[in-house]
């Protein structure tokens, strides 16, 4: 199965081109890395693949083959019923992903029951276990999102994803702004979801070290387009595009400074 995106174009206000004809494929059980400088359009590609582009930007063209269907990316209504168990977007801003008016426990339980994974009572009973799997105390079920740190909110989103077992998980900068221990923990959970649940995954990061550790294949974006893609090790060893070359030089400098 997996997912194929063809000809995705996203525009901003006044028709400004933000994503220009992106094609990509994520194989059923792989982790594809999507990397590139800030503002390249990575988050917009992620959002478009979940039918969740935030206005005023909107998709002008694009098709996505997923789950035996071809979705027209200009029509977000086509994602109805697919979000959650089909496509799960682990958002960069974990604050925006959670409802501020609902307790954590209720949100996780409702995500499971609304998606038909479990009956409401069963979902309530399962919530503590899912939170424990992501290292959160069961008592946090009664907390509201604003009472949690950014890392904890990321883990709440992951607990939902663990329960839903989406066929495609898109993780948009899941470790940005987290301390190194939390970063490693989140990456471990993502690997587990990919390996144990067989979720195809697209992992967005501007950190090549994260991409190298997680993704066998990578696509590099710049100014709204994919400029280079291929096996991560190969691409890092012999980058062709100037952007990738610059990124590799910066990475080597960083590593030399550390040594
Ligand atoms: N909802 C939106 N409406 C209008 N313009 C947007 C919207 N979201 C992003 N943009 C613009 O589109 C461009 C690409 O943004 P995007 O957030 O996709 O980049 P990115 O590669 O994910 O960057 P970062 O690594 O900083 O998150 C930027 O110039 C941004 O200002």
TrEMBL record:
The source's domain of life comes to: Bacteria
Query: Which terms are listed as keywords in the entry?
Result: ATP-binding, Cell membrane, Membrane, Nucleotide-binding, Transport
- Coiled-coil regions in this chain? none
Q: Which PROSITE patterns match?
A: ABC_TRANSPORTER_1, ABC_TRANSPORTER_2
A GO cellular component term found in this entry reads:
plasma membrane
Query: Which Pfam families has this protein been placed in?
Result: ABC_tran
* Keyword hit for Cell membrane: yes
The compartments listed are: Cell inner membrane
Q: How does it sit in the membrane?
A: Peripheral membrane protein
Give all residue intervals belonging to the ABC transporter domain.
3-248
What are the recorded GO MF terms, alphabetically?
ATP binding; ATP hydrolysis activity
The answer to whether keyword Acetylation applies is no
Alphabetical list of CDD domains matching this protein: ABC_NikE_OppD_transporters
InterPro entries listed in its UniProt record: AAA+_ATPase, ABC_Ni/Peptide_Import, ABC_transporter-like_ATP-bd, ABC_transporter-like_CS, P-loop_NTPase
* PANTHER family reported in the protein's UniProt record: DIPEPTIDE TRANSPORT ATP-BINDING PROTEIN DPPD, OLIGOPEPTIDE TRANSPORT ATP-BINDING PROTEIN APPD
UniProt similarity note: Belongs to the ABC transporter superfamily.
Recorded protein name is ABC transporter related protein
Task: Please tell me the species this chain comes from.
Answer: Desulfarculus baarsii (strain ATCC 33931 / DSM 2075 / LMG 7858 / VKM B-1802 / 2st14)
